[in-house]
Fold this sequence. Notes:
Helix content is 29%, strand content 17%. By secondary structure, the chain is of the alpha+beta class. The longest helix is centred in the middle third of the chain and has 14 residues, at 62-75.
Amino acid sequence: xxxxxxxxxxxxWFEPMWLENLGFAEEFTGWRMVAEGVTAPDxxxxxxxxxxxxxxxxxxxxxxxxxxxxALQVMGRAGGHQLDGxxxxxxxxxxxxxxxxxxxxxGADRPS
Length: 112
């Protein structure tokens, strides 16, 4: 049900972990999604088209940037990393030792 996801991935091993934790993969299988290209730009669940936290991790703003990037995808305003036809996006943030937040961004039909 998600067209694209912006999740908190400050290290490469976080991506399979969050894919499992967020319910996209069964426990101990998130790595397969990454290895098989499911999370690539042309995959079934593109992850972090903006480059995510691996590209920039301004402490305190990282989570808000994930939500903003998800919203930009839905609005069709993500510039060079825009994917076609995004209607539903997931934004995800993580902070402290055990706090995280996820947000769905759902857009109305927009002109093509």
